[in-house]
Amino acid sequence: MASVEKALQMLRKLPRVALNNIKEFPEVIKERKARHALPRGKDAKFKLGADHKGAAQRMSRPRLGFGKSTPGYLRVPKEYYYSGHHLLRQYIPISLLQIQRLIDLGRLNPNEPIDLTDICNTKLLLLDPSKRQFGFQLTDEGADIFKSKINIEVQWILSELTIAAIEKNGGVVTTKYYDIESVNAMSDPRRFFLSGKPIPKNGTPPLNAIEYYTSAANRGYLANPDQIRIERLKLAQKYGYELPDLENDPQRDMLSKKKDPRQIWHGLEPGWLVNLKDEVILKPTDKEWIEYYKS
């Protein structure tokens, strides 16, 4: 009885019999292998395996593409102009014409600061951080018809005409770097908040971008504010327009809004946790946590 009870106890612990845990009898498996086996030896009508002569027999064939007709771009051992190509940052181009059109259609609010999240929320221009897309590059297309006063933040600007078109109307433009984790959160805030992760702390620019983001001519977010005021005046004199006075502007509070270098959203600090279901914001109280996320 002990052996019977032991067998029943083992059966209780085993999984149910299903197609994925049953096996055929060994005789059936052996018969199937014999039926489908290729003839060998003197009964074989064709040869199996490698050839008797040459590179195939000695397993010394060249790798695929390096035979007699190897292409030229594979014969060259190195191409230095592609060095680090997979590490380059991409910026999706967006023009002043598109910004003005989005404002006219009501998809962008000119009375609030515009950043990467606002542009992505229009659902017309989307980012894919998996393809190393680090933000938007503002171009000068439509600079002659741009008429809005805005406070916009983008990641890259190459033309000073773009900056002049915004500042001529009394606006403010800033170029700011975001690391890939921050871009992933800003491109889809709802998905990020539902993940239950705290708001990340923005990283510092890489070495090859520090000079750009500390330049007042590029309106970098790490530039000296006094130097930016000088560059604004120089650009107004160069293009021949009168620089509006931001100190006496009725929208001064909106135009003067700036994020901390480590901050990615206005009004939300790094380390905070946003609960969309309960509509609450959880703030850290641990000293080490606060010290880590502090700018």
Features:
three-stranded parallel β-sheet, 295 residues, alpha/beta
Gap between N and C termini = 73 Å
Strand content: 5-15%
- Please tell me the overall pLDDT: 86
Pick out the low-confidence regions: none
Shape label: extended
Structural class by helix and strand composition: alpha/beta
Strands ordered across the widest β-sheet: 1-2-4
Secondary structure tally, helices: 12
Largest sheet: 3 strands, parallel
> Using only CA atoms, what is the Rg?
32 Å
Share of residues in helices: 25-40%
Number of strands: 7
Summary, kept brief:
The chain has about 300 residues and is of the alpha/beta class. The chain has helices at about 1-15, 25-35, 70-75, 95-105, 115-120, 160-170, 180-185, 190-195, 205-215, 225-240, 250-255, 285-295; strands spanning about 90-95, 135-140, 150-155, 155, 170-175, 275, 280.
